[in-house]
Design brief:
heterodimer, A: alpha/beta, 39% helix, B: alpha/beta, 4-stranded parallel beta sheet, binds iron/sulfur cluster
């Protein structure tokens, strides 16, 4: 058990982390349609195995049901959501307004992101906004929460009570600024970090070493990101096609050397082994399991990794 | 300088083909440097259009002319009549020149021969790159002389984003990540410490966001 930390919000995620437990988070992509069943189905699959569930915000710039509406659905199911919010599609008026909307439903976690460029999605001819960047969005939520004020300076009646997170990619380039960049996010006010998917554990360990050298692991909670491979094709695709991803050759080889019918199982095994290794790294406070369109595997991963049952907090 | 690119000939033809008397009108400054809209290019565009008219059996007169800059009154004096006598003008200036003609000659139809592409520099002969978006509130002093507003696809002021890969931007391997360039230069200048200073939320009111901009120098007013 780690040392306990003070709690500043009503977030269950924060309480679990502050109590010194490993947190387990997951994510759901809202549907490309208005059927609420998709979210409730995914939510029900994983609700007893994770502490909170992130809802992505038009990820890869594909137009989907909005993150806020899907978060409300989850909340109604009794699952605590993490509202992902990208700066690509909204200016500071819309961002603040959506934060208040979320707060009105007592959504207590937010993840501040810049968002993939719209050229990856279904509206490559659209504009992007980027009025704020992700660090400035972190600052904005903290300001609204801690000062109880809008960016424009006016008081907010019943300010948002949100635990503020961001993403970090230990594998993106340039590597030398990956830690300074985390320090910068902490200075902006971030409280938890969910990392990009970790496949290159050696490089991740090196990053964590640098994080600890600066004492940053004591200022922020770090949740290691994991995405299990469904098959060898997915491993290759992520390695070669997804910007900012680092999949070592031996991991791809391990997947492709496995007979087709056993590849899914092997993908889960790699994921569980990674969690076991991450648990040993000082400063790792939890796991963010992103089983893309494979949510039904989350319970298995959580159980195999010895992270079940989930702790209760009040 | 302002960079432009000639519109496809078909598109130009569709705009101008109904006029009997067309003047193709060059602008010999920025868009001449990028070899798209100078007086020489106006001349060749006029001959291409003449050929097209001939091929299609369309009866029209196409002349060409040009001035040094289509964005200042004084250069227009010598060509006033040419413009007034034409049914329509195909300007190969940037959008500023096209609008300047429209404002000055209220009875003359004017068409854009170019797409105004960006504010940029001549990287090498024939290669122009965007450098500035005229946000009206320059940040180059804290970004090692490289503009993240014009040169980062997400204009992040505290970059890079997570998509930066081996020096390239996430949207295109051929495109340098502006933040990689900024960091390289901060390193070269021994200024990496300043990387951790948070760029504040930007006041975009001096940008396009604040509405069309106007600048007045009282001391130069006559
Ligand atoms: S990769 Fe670099 S240039 Fe491209 S959007 Fe990200 S920070 Fe901007």
């Amino acid at each position: 058990m780690r040392e306990k930390r003070a709690v500043k919000t009503e977030s269950k995620l924060e309480k679990i982390l502050a109590a010194g437990h490993f947190a387990v988070t997951s994510e759901c992509g809202p549907p490309r349609g208005s059927d609420p069943e998709v979210i409730t189905h995914k939510g029900n699959l994983i609700k007893d195995y994770v502490d909170v569930v992130n809802i992505t915000d038009n990820q890869t710039s594909m137009t989907r049901m909005c993150s806020l509406a899907a978060c409300i659905r989850l909340k109604q199911l009794g699952v605590e959501p993490v509202l992902q919010m990208v700066t690509r599609d909204r200016n500071r008026i819309a961002l603040q307004s959506d934060i208040l909307g979320a707060a009105s439903f007592d959504i207590t976690n937010i993840l501040c992101l810049s968002g993939d460029h719209q050229s990856f999605g279904d509206c490559p001819n659209g504009q992007n906004v980027h009025d704020l960047d992700s660090m400035q969005l972190i600052q904005t939520v903290r300001y609204m929460r801690d000062e109880g004020k809008f960016l424009g300076g006016d008081d907010i009646k019943r300010p948002p009570n949100m635990f503020v997170g961001a993403a970090a990619n230990p594998f993106a380039d340039p590597f030398e600024i990956r830690v300074p960049r985390l320090a910068k996010k902490i200075a902006a006010g971030v409280e938890f970090i969910q990392t990009q998917c970790i496949y290159n554990l050696d490089k991740f360990e090196l990053w964590m070493q640098q994080v600890r050298d600066r004492g940053l692991h004591e200022k922020v909670y770090i949740l290691g990101g994991l995405t299990p491979f469904k098959n060898a094709g997915m491993a290759k695709y992520i390695k070669n096609r997804v910007p900012g991803m680092d999949v070592p050759d031996d991991v791809v080889k391990r997947m492709s050397d496995t007979p087709k019918e056993k590849q899914a199982e092997e993908g889960i095994k790699i994921c569980v082994e990674s969690i076991e290794r991450l648990k040993q790294i000082e400063g790792v406070h939890g796991f963010h399991i992103m089983a893309i369109e494979w949510e039904e595997k989350v319970p298995e991963i959580v159980k195999q990794a010895g992270l079940w049952p989930r702790p209760e907090v009040n | 300088m302002i960079v432009g690119k000639q519109k496809p000939l078909e598109e130009i033809w569709d705009m101008v083909c109904s006029h009997k008397n067309l003047l193709v009108f060059g602008c010999n400054t920025c868009v001449a440097v990028c070899h798209e809209g100078g007086n020489k290019e106006a001349e060749s565009l006029a001959s291409l259009l003449r050929m097209k008219a001939q091929q299609l059996g369309v009866d029209m007169t196409i002349t060409h002319s040009g001035i040094e800059r289509q964005c200042e009154h004084e250069f227009f004096e010598s060509v006033h009549d040419q413009i007034e006598n034409a049914d329509a003008v195909l300007s190969t200036a940037c959008g500023i020149g096209v609008q300047f003609i429209a404002e000055k000659f209220d009875k003359t139809i004017v068409y854009p021969g170019l797409n105004t592409t960006f504010l940029g520099a001549v990287e090498s002969l024939g290669t122009m790159t965007e450098k500035c978006q005229a946000c009206g509130n320059c940040v180059l002093g804290v970004t090692a002389g490289i503009c993240p507003i014009a040169r980062c696809a997400k204009r992040v002021l505290n970059g890079p984003c997570g998509g930066s890969t081996k020096g390239s931007c996430e949207i295109n391997k051929e495109l340098d990540c502006a933040w990689q360039l900024i960091i390289n230069r901060l390193e070269a200048l021994g200024q990496m410490d300043s990387y951790e200073t948070l760029a504040p939320i930007k006041d975009w009111s001096s940008d396009r966001a604040g509405g069309p901009r106007k600048q007045i120098r009282e001391d130069l007013q006559v």
